[in-house]
Amino acid sequence: MTIDAPSLVRRIPTPPWGDPKDRRTVDYQGFVATGGYAALEQALDRTPEEIIETVKAAVLRGRGGAGFPAGLKWSFLPAPDGGRRYLAINCDEAEPGTFKDRLLCDFDPHLILEGIAICCWACRLDTAYFFIRGEYHHQARVMEQAIKEAYENGIFGGKGLMRGKVDFAVDCHVHRSAGAYICGEETGLLEAIEGKRGWPRIKPPFPAVKGLFGRPTIVNNVETLAAVPGILEHGVDWWKAQGVESSLGGMPSYGSKLMGVSGHVVRPGVFEMGLGVTLKDLVEKHCGGIRHGRRFKGAIPGGVSMGVLGTDQYDTPLDFDIGPRAEVLGLGTACPTVFDEETDMVAVARNISRFFKNESCGQCTPCREGSAWTYKILCRIERGDATTADLDLLLELAGSMGLGPGTTICGLADGNNWAVRTIVNKFRGEFEARVKPKLVPLYVGA
Ligand SMILES: Cc1cc2nc3c(=O)[nH]c(=O)nc-3n(C[C@H](O)[C@H](O)[C@H](O)COP(=O)(O)O)c2cc1C
Ligand code: SF4
Fold this sequence. Notes:
By secondary structure, the chain is α/β, with parallel strands linked by helices. The protein folds into three domains: 11-241, NADH-ubiquinone oxidoreductase 51kDa subunit (Rossmann fold); 256-340, Ubiquitin-like (UB roll); 345-432, Up-down Bundle (de novo design (two linked rop proteins)). It contains 18 helices and nine strands. It has helices at residues 28-33, 38-43, 48-57, 70-75, 100-107, 109-123, 137-152, 161-164, 186-193, 222-234, 236-241, 279-286, 322-326, 345-359, 365-383, 388-399, 412-426, 428-432; strands spanning 11-12, 86-91, 127-132, 171-176, 217-221, 256-263, 269-274, 296-300, 337-340. A hairpin with a 5-residue loop joins strand 6 and strand 7. Helix 14 (345-359) runs antiparallel to helix 17. It is globular and about 90 Å long. Mean pLDDT is 93; it is low at 1-18. Flavin mononucleotide binds next to strand 5.
């Protein structure tokens, strides 16, 4: 996938909705025939500092969930000291409703490798680990084959990048995850690559300073790295033109973004859109609208950790301002899951809470115990066995866990916090209809 002009919106067909025969994995020859690796060639004519400045000027915000600017992250690395420096590519993609990185691997693995090579040159990183979700068997094989082709054609290994064009060699390996959501958290991922249990680390130190095997490490999402060749090839202005400025006076949302739409829409799939497109436009113009002619009820903007948009928030622009603007945690992966008017939001909350209960790594008490407890309360509400006091307890409990309130090591607990609170607050009527009034004793005997 190369990123094109803003008006060019492509849908990558995914089975069973599209015909997979229409798209094939682009191999090395096919990639080069369409201008692939030209951006790497150009990048090697420039100094690493110039490339970092370009990525900074483009304000390329991380596509893995947090939206942190990649150029800024790269500039946090200490100066090379002759020891190993690593790039960890995050393709864990275990966030429910998110399936965009998978398609990049499926169809355009060399675009990812080109971004990896450019990042390694810009940041002076000599070893790259492609960390891929355990269930992505096919994609892991595709990436292994593409890396083999890249070695055979002198991109990696040997005397240096691009058949020795620069005296700086990079090695690239695929590391298959054993399969836990927490291994997508950047420090859990580093632990997993080191062969340990995927328990997130307390930060600081941040990975740029002390990451894999105690050495400087950059962790970036697959899509973030795949955007780099386009920025270098077409320029910063081209990239900026595909996104929007912040309407809240904050950091802009530039560039296009892969948006994987699932849930109650006519045609789910992955779409490449300019940031700032409204959810309504995405669903109505590109996904065929809500299925069975029903009405929109709500949506998760990008992974269940982000919380939900309410019925009156269908017109919300999908950009990095969405958090404060729409009272959700953030844009996340920008892969919305859409709910129609028939959806039982109590069941949605219970289901999401069950996910976080199962995926908590157990290190922090508020996350380990709190997620199990929120799940139990939600089950009680769904069964009709809860009282209004349980609803208050649920909100208090959910609001007390996560990096936001400062009670946990990583952001997994914030996901549970935001999902539960936003669903209850935005669909409170549904919860109130399921709970009984709290029983107040009229007389307590002596
Ligand atoms: C519980 C949890 C799971 C995460 N899973 C992923 C993931 O599957 N893929 C990903 O790219 N980032 C994931 N992240 C975000 C990473 O910690 C990190 O911010 C990201 O990989 C950095 O890349 P980027 O700056 O290019 O977005 C997760 C974060 C948390 C807290
Ligand atoms: S917040 Fe949860 S998942 Fe994250 S480190 Fe603590 S217990 Fe583990």
